[in-house]
Amino acid sequence: MVCQSQRELMIHNKRAIAISIIFIIYAITVSAAHAQTSGSLKLEPHQITLSRGRTFSLELPEGFDIKIAAQGLNRPRFMAQSPDGRIFVTDMFSRADNTRGAVYILDGFDQSSGRFRRVIPYLSHLRNPNSLTFHTDRQGVTWLYLALTDHLVRYRFQLGETSPSSRPEVLATFPGYGLSYKYGGWHLTRTVVIGPDEKVYVAVGSSCNACEEREEVRASLVQMDLDGSNQKFFARGLRNAVGLKWVGGELFATNMGADHLGDERPEDTFYRLREGANYGWPYCYQFRGRVYADPKFRASSGNRVCNDVPLAVVGFLAHSSPLGFDYFDASNSNTALRDHFLVALHGSSKIGLGHGYRVVRIPHGGGAPQNFILGFLQNRKIYGRPADVFRIAPNSFLVTDDYAGVIYYITASG
User: In this predicted model, what pLDDT tens digit does every residue of 278-297 receive, in sequence order?
Assistant: First the structure.
């Protein structure tokens, strides 16, 4: 009897082990399938050596190369391509002086080296130039639109010029002050885009971290005609929508959440904007796919119901600080880019938090952000802060770094 019981116990144990192995194999298979369907990327290190001898590594998906397209700038921010094919970039100079901003022309791109041959000063002594765009109107006149803290201006643009051939026209004015913070106030950047409807859209950030604004234009997106006339509000409740871009007839925006609710909330957000919508700030915020009321304003007479606040396409980790982005459409042969957004996460001022300091990709239909470029923050040391992503070819793009004063060229090898 004892021997028979031992044999039965051994058989039972073997069956249990076999079943456990089957479950382990199944779990591995499911996990691998999930990783494949979620499009996770294998990142590989690339050594970066800047002109002053600073050396570090940035991690990119396998099959991609990265090169230094330009360096020696101060705070390069957003980019735009002129009708003659040159890249223009804003430069906000430094946090200590917000009146010495500039616009540069990145000229003579050499694809083999991945470098621009010349960096040409186009405009100087500007107040926080963050964003610019070009547009040719129905009369055939080409304009350069430039968003400054207190003004939206435009210049008549002549092909090939290396300095403005006309005086600026002031199309709109905005508040130029904020709380005593950083370089003279909260959220002093403005972002400008022109839609397929030939309307101009300008994002104006809040004057504070979390407050009820006295000026209606704060924390909003303003729409106007090409000459600045017929101004109206397109969307409200956007604390600081820095990145704006039209994609397929839809307007997308990055937005930064408030800082007083801890290290994990609220999420920073990526929206598909809807005309007339209110995105909740300062009364509501998003966290893990839900919208919550900010307890700071619970007793306020201006408080709003948060149930009608639209959800974001994607929520980022709190304090990631999403800025510029670009979209890579179905014309891309590279599957790592096709039908995805790439978003520059500028990074938290709390270095120990480690949120941001990277470029991530987002599927067009939504989904969790996936790391695309890592290494701007390593062991609590900052090597860079990505500010904008700009597509220059189906499988190639530029990234500005307003910390190291560098512009990177990234392309799919082969």
Answer: 999 999 999 999 999 999 99
User: What CATH code is assigned to 43-412?
Assistant: 2.120.10.30
Asked if 186 and 282 count as a contact pair (C-beta separation under 8 A), the reply is no
Instruction: Place 178 in a pLDDT band, splitting at 50, 70 and 90.
Output: low
pLDDT band at 8 (very low <50, low <70, confident <90, very high): low
Q: Is the model more confident about 263 or about 4?
A: 263
